[in-house]
């Protein structure tokens, strides 16, 4: 918690120092480390640098006593866009004996697949979207339930539906098998999470911050296995009574705070300066870690069957969790009905399983299923336990080849799609997306080429299911990462997804390029808001691997996090941005166009200054040898420490192949970054980025933005919803 506005306006350096001296003491600290370390040497290093710290008595934490909730406490806010219900119940602290049962209750409500909310509300389409999540803290806990209404549905109706799911738990009306399935889900997620150092550190840190012994943390799942149905019912009746907070977000104009732009002096940031402490850190001797690159001989195998299937196999050396996908190079740019087809499939069952029973079957297997369409490809995914790989693949093929759904489900899906689109036309984030896509692609914008309202209303399930079934008849890429042998995977595929005849060639890749303009242009959308959303972008030339090192150096120098020019100049030095960033994006396939983009969110009355300052950075980028050296060393450190994990290997290899590169191009890139100079990066900026005509998109409050001043940058064209969204 950073405090109230009056606290932030009047900070006390004395109080800050006292706070630091009181709590930043060794007996109130812990060090968490996970990695490829020598434990004895690491402990010795910690002892060397921390043993001189002197312990002090730390004040006992106060006992926080919150006033009890008194019945249904109602709060309301307004927002133009999607309406929303949030219910909040106060529960027990994370160390309480009921905490394990509360974790299970949350998963009985919402486990993303077979929870009561998942099945009774989302799968049944009784609401547009709903879910739950817990907040177990040291002093108290909380359980949140949320829901988004359908067209014509009241927020009160959504609240009642959410409360009904809690009542089912309180009366024990949930399947007995779900508890063991949830425990298995926790086991699977724990295995997957512990694949990374970050997750291992987080587990240790959370245990320590929760005043829990490591033994208790390790035994969490064992304790959960002992929780019975009667315990769940008792705990649900204890915490989920009539005392809760109901928050409603209503679709109505909201009062936008009026912030007067203060006069702030520009701070001159000199990247050549550094503190003695920073100099000491940078001057420490170290042994550089040798980068690790993907080895085609040991890290993966590609098998082509000659019929149109490429299998990418990656062994999992850590656990028994598999990742599996089927990818077909046919996407929404080829057929704009694919997204709707994927949505309907997610609501469908088969001849052997109703839609609800199918979700239960996925959860019993411990398998996650997903399908999604991008611009040029559609991908079907499974994740789960290797022991259930065969059963999961069989169930997937049953769904893909013979889905079944009631007509009423499709009609309800149509309503949800259309009301979601209506809400998107009110919200600044989606308006901004539609505006810059129109600015970039014109009539080819995905917000204009999506299914029209008439097309959505006229769609039938036979057509949509036909689109899904056709996908398996095209050439496809199959990826498997897991503990099964390559031979076992091939045998399972032969049993459940046999390809016996040549597959059809996929449609030609559809490539879009940014509009080519002779001078900068501004597209403007007038919307009352606290912030203006500004985007600056332009296309350059075809992706070129030869300039990749310069691109990396430019990106890190120009917008490398908090140390980059964009953040430092626009936010830190000039106070012009709530958030700001930029990136030179290289094309993903041979022949794709590169794209330079920058984004900034700023106070409306600062829009002109922010935009002018951003363009100045593009076209007159300040030069600093020190900043360049920091950017370069940061990139090299990333190569040395950011190894591609085994789950990322097949995706990385495929992305390199789409660029016509042999694995692993990072080795050459690393060597070329080492040899690159400031002159190389500046040459790239001056020939590719500097003084290029820009496509500028602004969503903001016209009454607070000097539009005439914007016109000095380029002609301003004001657009409407009808211009940027399909009818």
**Strand tally:** 17
Could you say which overall geometry the principal axes of the C-alpha atoms support?
A: globular
What's the helical proportion of residues? 40-55%
**Count of helical segments?**
30
Mean pLDDT, as a whole number? 94
Structural class: alpha+beta
Order of strands in the sheet with most strands: 6-7-11-8-10-9
> What composes the largest sheet?
6 strands, mixed
The parts where pLDDT drops under 50 for at least 5 residues are none
What's the end-to-end separation, in Å?
44 Å
Alpha-carbon Rg, integer? 28 Å
- What fraction of the residues are assigned to beta strands by DSSP? 15-25%
Record keyword descriptors for this entry.
727 residues; alpha+beta; 6-stranded mixed β-sheet
What would you say this structure looks like, in words?
The protein has 727 residues and is of the alpha+beta class. 43% of the residues lie in helices and 17% in strands. It is built from 30 helices and 17 strands. The strands form 3 sheets. Strands 6-7-11-8-10-9 form a 6-stranded mixed sheet. The longest helix is centred in the middle third of the chain and has 18 residues, at 407-424. It starts with a helix and ends with a helix.
């Amino acid at each position: 918690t950073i405090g109230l506005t009056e606290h932030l306006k009047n900070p006390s350096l004395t109080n800050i120092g006292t706070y630091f001296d009181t709590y930043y003491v060794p007996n109130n600290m812990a060090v968490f480390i996970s990695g490829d370390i020598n434990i004895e040497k690491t402990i010795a290093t910690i002892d060397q640098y921390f043993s001189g710290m002197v312990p002090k008595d730390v004040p006992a934490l106060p006992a926080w006593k919150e006033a009890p909730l008194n019945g249904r406490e109602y709060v309301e806010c307004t927002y133009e866009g999607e309406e929303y219900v949030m219910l909040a119940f106060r529960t027990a602290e994370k160390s309480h004996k009921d905490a394990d049962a509360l974790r299970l209750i949350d998963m009985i409500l919402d486990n993303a697949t077979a929870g009561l909310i998942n099945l009774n509300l989302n799968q049944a389409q009784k609401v547009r979207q709903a879910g739950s999540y817990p907040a177990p803290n040291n002093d108290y806990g909380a359980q949140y339930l949320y829901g988004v209404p359908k067209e014509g549905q009241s927020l009160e109706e959504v609240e009642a539906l959410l409360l009904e799911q809690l009542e089912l738990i309180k009366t024990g009306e949930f399947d007995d098998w779900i508890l063991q399935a949830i425990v298995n889900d926790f086991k699977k997620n724990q295995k997957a999470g512990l694949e990374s150092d970050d997750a291992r550190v987080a587990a240790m840190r959370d245990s320590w911050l929760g005043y829990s012994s490591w033994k208790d943390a390790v035994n969490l799942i064992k304790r959960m296995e002992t929780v019975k149905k009667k315990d769940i019912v008792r705990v649900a009746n204890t915490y989920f009574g009539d005392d809760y907070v109901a928050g409603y977000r209503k679709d109505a104009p909201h009062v936008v705070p009026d912030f007067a732009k203060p006069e702030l002096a520009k701070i001159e940031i000199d990247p050549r300066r550094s503190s003695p402490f920073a100099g000491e850190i940078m001057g420490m001797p170290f042994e550089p870690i040798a980068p690790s690159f993907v080895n085609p001989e040991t890290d993966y195998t590609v098998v082509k069957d000659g019929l149109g299937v490429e299998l990418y196999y990656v062994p999992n050396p850590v656990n028994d969790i598999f990742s599996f996908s089927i990818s077909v190079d046919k996407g929404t740019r080829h057929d704009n009905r694919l997204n709707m087809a994927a949505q309907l499939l997610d609501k469908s069952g088969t001849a052997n399983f109703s839609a609800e029973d199918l979700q239960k079957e996925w959860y019993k297997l411990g398998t996650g299923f997903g399908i999604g369409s991008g611009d040029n490809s559609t991908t079907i995914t499974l994740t789960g336990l290797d022991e259930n790989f065969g059963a999961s693949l069989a169930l997937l093929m049953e769904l893909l080849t013979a889905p079944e759904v009631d007509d009423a489900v499709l009609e309800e899906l149509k309503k949800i799609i259309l009301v979601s689109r209506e809400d998107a036309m009110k919200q600044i984030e989606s308006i901004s997306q539609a505006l810059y896509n129109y600015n970039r692609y014109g009539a080819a914008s995905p917000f204009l080429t999506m299914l029209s309202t008439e097309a959505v209303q006229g769609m039938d399930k036979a057509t949509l299911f036909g689109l899904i079934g056709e996908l398996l008849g095209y050439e496809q890429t199959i990826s498997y990462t897991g503990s099964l042998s390559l031979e076992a995977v091939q045998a399972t595929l032969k049993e459940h997804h046999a390809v016996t005849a040549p597959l059809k060639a996929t449609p030609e890749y559809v490539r879009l390029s940014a509009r080519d303009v002779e001078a900068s242009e501004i597209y403007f959308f007038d919307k009352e808001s606290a912030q203006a959303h500004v985007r600056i972008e332009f296309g350059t030339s075809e992706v070129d691997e030869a300039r990749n090192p310069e691109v990396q150096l430019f990106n890190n120098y120009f917008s490398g996090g908090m140390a980059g020019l964009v953040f430092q100049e626009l936010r830190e030095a000039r106070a012009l941005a709530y958030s700001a960033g930029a990136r030179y994006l290289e094309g993903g396939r041979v022949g794709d166009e590169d794209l330079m983009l920058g984004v900034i969110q700023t106070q409306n009355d600062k829009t002109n200054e922010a935009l002018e300052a951003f363009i100045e950075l593009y076209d007159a980028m300040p030069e600093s040898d020190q900043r360049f050296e920091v950017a370069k060393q940061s990139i090299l450190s990333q190569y040395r420490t950011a190894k591609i994990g085994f789950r990322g290997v097949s995706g990385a290899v495929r992305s390199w192949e789409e660029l016509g590169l042999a694995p692993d191009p990072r080795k050459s890139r690393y060597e070329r970054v080492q040899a690159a100079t400031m002159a190389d990066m500046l040459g790239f900026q001056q020939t590719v980025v500097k003084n290029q005509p820009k496509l500028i998109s602004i969503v903001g409050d016209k009454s607070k933005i000097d539009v005439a001043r914007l016109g000095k940058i380029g002609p301003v064209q004001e657009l409407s919803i009808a211009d940027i969204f399909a009818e």
